[in-house]
Every structure is written in C-alpha cells, then in structure tokens.
Amino acid sequence: MMPYTPRTTEALADDGLISQAALHGFCADGYGVLPQAVTKTELERLQAESARLIQRFTEDGHRCDDYWHFTPAGAEAPVLYRIHNLENQGSPAAAQLYADGGPLHPLAEALLGATVRATACALIVKLPGVAAPVPWHRDRTEVPPHTVCNLSVFLDDSDAGNGCLEFVPGSHLLPDDEETGELQQRGRVRALTLMAGDVAVHDVRIAHASRRNTSPRIRRSIVIEFAPTGLELS
Ligand code: NI
User: Fold this and answer.
1) Mean pLDDT of 54-62
2) How far is the CA of 154 from the centre of ligand 1 (A)?
C-alpha cells in the first residue's frame, strides 16, 4: 500500500468540496474518484466493523436475509458477497454514513447539486479466491443522468487482481433500454484502481461490472446510494 494521506472534510471544503476534475468526470464519464475522502480514523472503524460482520457469517454461521451468499457448484461452503441494509447490522460507523448529516452527504450534494438523502447502504464483499464476477448491469435507469449516485467507500486497495470496478464511460447518457452486454463490447471499458480510503462515485445509470477475485486479497467496499430529498425511488 502507498503512503496514506488522509483528507478531512474541511480540506475537501477548502477545494470547494470536490475537485473540478472529479465533478467533470462524474458528469461526462458517469464515474470518478474522490481520493482519500474518509479520515484514517473513520476508515479504521469501518474496516474493523466490516471484519466483524464478515466473521459472523464465515465463522459464527450467522445467516439472515440481509447476508447475500451463493454456493459454488461442487462446493459446500457458501460464499458471502453482500450485506444488505448495512445501517441495521449493529455497525455504528456504517450506520452514520447512511444517517442524515453523514460525512458523505456533502460530497453527494456537491455532485448532484441538490440536498440529498441516503436511500440504500450495503457492504460489498469479494472474498479472496472464491468471489464470483458481477455481470455488466446498470443499477437504475428510471431516473435521468446526474440525478442519483452511488458512493463506494473502499476499505481495501482494489485492482484488476481482486475484482476492481469496471465502467463503460459515458454509458449513463445512453437510452434506458440499451443492452448492457453490448455496451461493454462496443464501448471502451475502464478499470478503476483504488486505494483504501478512496471513494468511488458513479451515476446509477452507468454500465459497470467487476471480475472474479483471483488474488489472496479481500476487496470490501461500502456502497451508499444518494438521491435528491423528495425524489421517490422504486
Ligand atoms: Ni451495481
């Protein structure tokens, strides 16, 4: 891992919250990076909480509807890939990201140019060696571009080896019924390498995917969806 330089919310505010480059990337490409947008303390709390939740599943045998998993063909052990409704799992730092006035809310407001509320919160887990690929998809298409976004706090370094996010730049601007598989073949795919503490942002309309985790390194991220206050989502 490269040297860690945490940035405070105050430092981001000094820049006008987010850089022009990030804002431009979000609007034109549909995705971007807010480098080191959570503090070191915050990151460590989120990492510790996430490790405990994952351990509940892998070691303590905890099962419930919010712990999404699959069992690979020929295998016996289930593989955890998502903890849904993360704000309700007894993890205070994660719940704070979701609650009104959370530390990421100002960033989402700067990106969307509106007051926002968090509308979903989940822990994405790509376990070493066993995590499946996530096929090409768009999270939502029933909203216009630049209206609803996902912010993903990366808890681990992420690259092609452990299944980093991949995007088709600009695909958030395409019609709702475009086939995501075709978009991927037609467009230029960009893989997003990130460091722990970085926040990836993407328009919910963009085509994205991730590959298998073939590495010995776990890849965890907390994804929070933000929508303008008052906008009803299905
Ligand atoms: Ni998605």
Assistant:
1) 95
2) 15
pTM for this one?
0.90
Amino acid at residue number 218: I
CA–CA dist 167, 31 (Å, integer): 8
| pLDDT for position 22 | 82
How close is the Cα of 76 to the center of ligand 1, in Å? Answer: 27
Q: Which residues contact 85 (CB under 8 A, 6 or more apart)?
A: 66, 121, 122
Distance from the CA of 169 to the center of ligand 1, in angstroms? 14
| Phi, psi of 58, rounded to the nearest 5 degrees | -75, -30
In this prediction, residue 116 has a pLDDT band, given cuts at 50, 70 and 90, of very high
Ligand 1 centre from 14 Cα, in Å? 31
Gap from CA of 81 to ligand 1 centroid (Å): 13
